[in-house]
């Protein structure tokens, strides 16, 4: 038999007289009120950079200088490592010389073409006769007579069209184009002997030292974007089913009372098992990343998976036997608590939403 006693500030203190036990047990009742119901899931995570770049030399060579080491913070455009560039500089100079020579040949070909075009205007077209020149005369029988009847037409250098040197200009222009591409390639090869930071961040690894011979395309420096950090966490499958991108979260760091806002940006579609428990990876981004975070630093993660506002609610400990959207509560009656079946909505960490069976102001046993 259950008996409820008198009221006390903050609730009703009573006694539960159980079968075979005459000792009263103090109980507390709570009034049904309106407010928010929230549900969070929590785990631990690890700080990691949002972006990590693998930086390489795109040409082979010997390392001449390394200006950074792991842990150094760098700014965008900062020089990080350099190869011996003697050969690359020589190649660039040779390419520039070749370009200058090709441009000189093009200029000469254009000059010849202009002169050829000018002289072509004085040659006769096929089938035409040139204007007669001054014809010399001879004395014939006391009179002057022309020595020849006329001057033959001057033929054009080519059949049908004058030779203006256009073929030579085209050839010279092609040589200039090839030489310009050679200069561009040599400049890129010289630039490739230096690694510069594409972003601001922190150097996390250096794979070589001065004097090493490196291959083209092999990673030499790993650079992390530590100015945009994120948290990688793993949730058990019981909680992961309620997680989705866009949910709000909070992150707290070890040895700190500060709490930072965050958002779920990715939930792994496939879990991993340690033989006992299956966990799903979750990636969270800081709303405003704090300064001086360390790669690998541990963090406490809490993700809000459910929330309703301004609803009828009771303490979650007051609702038992929840199944299929209903549960049981002990409602304070005139002389004794009575069980009542209620319909429930969101079952939160502290409160459970009541959608039917109770009214605001009803009193239920807080824990039983």
TrEMBL record:
Pfam families: RND-MFP_C
Domain of life of the native organism: Bacteria
Subcellular location: Cell envelope
Keywords of this entry: Coiled coil
GO molecular function: transmembrane transporter activity
Domain Multidrug resistance protein MdtA-like C-terminal permuted SH3: 311-365
GO CC annotations, alphabetized: cell envelope; membrane
Principal subcellular localisation of the protein: other
Alphabetized InterPro entries for the sequence: MdtA-like_C, RND_pump_MFP, UPF0194_transport
The keyword Transmembrane is assigned to this record: no
Coiled-coil intervals: 92-119
Protein family per UniProt: Belongs to the membrane fusion protein (MFP) (TC 8.A.1) family.
Name of the protein described by the UniProt record: HlyD family secretion protein
């Amino acid at each position: 038999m259950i008996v409820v006693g008198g009221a006390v500030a903050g609730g009703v203190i009573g006694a539960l007289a159980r079968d075979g036990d005459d000792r009263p047990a103090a109980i507390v009742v709570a009034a049904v009120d309106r407010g928010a119901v929230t549900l969070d899931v929590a785990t631990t995570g690890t700080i990691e950079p949002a972006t990590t770049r693998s930086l390489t030399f795109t040409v082979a060579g010997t390392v001449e200088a390394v200006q950074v080491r792991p842990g150094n913070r760098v700014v965008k455009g900062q020089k990080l490592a350099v190869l011996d560039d003697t050969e690359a500089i020589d190649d660039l100079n040779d390419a520039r010389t070749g370009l200058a020579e090709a441009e000189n040949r093009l200029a000469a070909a254009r000059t010849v073409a202009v002169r050829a075009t000018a002289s072509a205007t004085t040659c006769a077209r096929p089938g035409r006769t040139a204007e007669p020149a001054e014809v010399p005369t001879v004395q014939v029988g006391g009179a002057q007579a022309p020595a020849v009847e006329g001057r033959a037409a001057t033929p054009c250098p080519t059949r049908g069209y004058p030779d203006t040197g256009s073929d030579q200009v085209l050839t010279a222009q092609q040589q200039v184009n090839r030489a310009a591409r050679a200069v561009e390639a040599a400049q890129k090869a010289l630039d490739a002997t230096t690694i510069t930071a594409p972003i601001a961040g922190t150097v996390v690894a250096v794979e070589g030292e001065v004097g090493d011979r490196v291959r083209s395309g092999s990673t030499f420096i790993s650079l992390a974007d530590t100015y945009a950090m994120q948290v990688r966490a793993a949730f058990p499958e019981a909680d992961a089913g309620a997680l989705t991108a866009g949910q709000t979260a909070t992150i707290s760091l070890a040895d700190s009372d500060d709490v930072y806002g965050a958002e779920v940006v990715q939930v792994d579609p496939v879990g991993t098992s340690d033989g006992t428990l299956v966990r799903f990876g979750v990636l969270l981004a800081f709303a405003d990343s704090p300064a001086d975070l360390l790669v690998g630093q541990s963090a406490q993660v809490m993700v809000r998976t459910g929330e309703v506002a301004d609803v009828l609610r009771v303490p979650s400990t007051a609702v038992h036997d929840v199944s299929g959207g209903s549960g049981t509560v002990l409602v304070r009656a005139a002389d004794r608590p009575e069980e009542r079946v209620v319909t429930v909505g969101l079952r939160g960490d502290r409160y459970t939403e009541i959608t039917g069976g109770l009214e605001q102001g009803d009193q239920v046993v807080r824990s039983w």
